[in-house]
């Protein structure tokens, strides 16, 4: 199978970096094809504007969705965006590896979505959610938190993690047609010992060995 892993963390020696590298090792050893998008090392530009395109639909007024649809018709996406779009279309499973920052994905990953998930390419003409253009593909969020597991329960300090992740699960991934697998969550790795973190990495690898046997979760609407 074909897997795209998108890493959004500035430090490769972090737990996120370790999970990223463990995923690559386990999946390639299992015989899968793996491509990566390491957004910080690639210095990916998260700012969405006319630099997304090599063509112009309306030079007098910028409306991104109209420019995206024009770029689909004219092969007018900038090279960095076209490359990422091809990776997304290529994969059977997409994994995002990131730290939960301010209750969402890091800005560079949100900017990647803003620029890459183009109208006319991944959604549009009433094709979204269950009819999104990427239907048949699966997506998985693999993330770390600063707080403990107890703080992300329904009655915890921060509230239910499933609710926190819903704008990503539903509003980004399911919107373009992905089926969503249960998230892989490592709570407060900074508070864990080296041995505890290694156990979590082993568990992550074990899960990945059978990842294509997993069924999607029910995210639900807003």
UniProtKB/TrEMBL annotation:
It holds the Pfam family Flavodoxin_2. Residues 1-193 form the Flavodoxin-like fold domain. Signal peptide: none annotated. Gene3D superfamilies: 3.40.50.360. The keyword rRNA-binding does not apply. The keyword Oxidoreductase applies. Its EC number is 1.10.99.2. One of its GO terms (cellular component) is cytosol. InterPro entries: Flavodoxin_fold (IPR003680), Flavoprotein-like_sf (IPR029039), NAD(P)H_dehydrogenase_qn (IPR051545). One of its GO terms (molecular function) is NAD(P)H dehydrogenase (quinone) activity. Keywords: Oxidoreductase. It is an enzyme of class 1 (oxidoreductase). Belongs to the NAD(P)H dehydrogenase (quinone) family. This is Ribosyldihydronicotinamide dehydrogenase (Quinone). It comes from Chitinophaga pinensis (strain ATCC 43595 / DSM 2588 / LMG 13176 / NBRC 15968 / NCIMB 11800 / UQM 2034).
